[in-house]
Design brief:
Length: about 240
């Protein structure tokens, strides 16, 4: 058993750094999959930051995320996400700097231990700790990575973070908190009002519906934001430009 809470975050950091190295090499070789590999690396590096709150190792994850984000922006370019509802910030680098997540208030919750598959009240596994345990499918999900399809061999030992799979819950409320109990319960999308983009970019000939470049990673990092600003849905000044 490993009691160090940073082990899961460091695993994400190592995976993200490795993926970014492969993406850089793929780009050098002209591999068309280089961009997809690089953006997958950003997801892993954001997960590292999310799992290293209040730990000194978060500095390394934060630095790696910023460096990777800048390279991706300079190499491939980045834009705000668009759909029929408008524009949104979905970048792992951007959202990873906002240290907040969701906490659910609920009753009648039924949980399963993702180490052994038993009721947590009947086993001795402590949530948040990492155990050397065999990989297995619990309710159709791998207990190592929580994915439905993966390469983890059932029965093989892996360092596994002890989490709880909720199979039933009556939700009463959802709150925005600084440190969510589930480190993956983060904000993955922030809407950007079209009117604010029009005010900022309209003089340059931009019209709603046109692409909007995101230049956030080209600016110096402002640091990790522990408390969201009142205008969290709006882009930072100078952070976007007409495509």
């Amino acid at each position: 058993m490993h009691s160090c809470p940073s082990s899961f975050g460091l695993a994400h950091l190592a995976r993200g750094q490795d993926a970014m190295s492969h993406a850089r090499l793929a780009q050098f070789r002209g591999d068309p999959d280089a961009e997809a590999q690089a953006r997958e690396a950003l997801v892993a590096l954001r997960a590292a930051v999310d799992n290293l709150d209040d730990l000194p190792e978060q500095f390394d994850a934060h630095y790696a995320l910023d460096q990777a984000g800048r390279w991706v922006r300079e190499t491939f370019g980045c834009s705000l996400a668009q759909d029929d509802k408008g524009y949104a910030r979905t970048c792992p680098v951007d959202l990873g700097h906002h240290r907040m997540g969701m906490s659910v208030g609920a009753v009648n919750t039924v949980r399963i231990c993702m180490i052994c598959g038993e009721d947590p009240r009947a086993c001795r596994h402590v949530a948040g700790r990492t155990y050397d345990a065999p990989a297995k499918r619990i309710r159709g999900r791998c207990n190592v990575c929580n994915e439905e399809a993966c390469d983890h061999a059932p029965g093989e030992p892996y360092p596994i973070l002890c989490t709880r799979l909720i199979t039933h819950v009556d939700v009463q409320e959802i709150s925005l908190v600084r440190r969510p109990a589930n480190t993956a319960a983060r904000v993955f999308k922030i809407g950007v009002p079209t009117r604010e983009l029009e005010d900022a970019l309209g003089p340059d000939g931009w019209l709603p519906g046109m692409p909007v470049r995101c230049d956030r990673c080209l600016s110096p990092c402002d640091g990790l934001q522990e408390i969201p600003e009142p205008t969290a849905g709006a882009p930072r000044p100078g952070a976007v430009s007409a495509a």
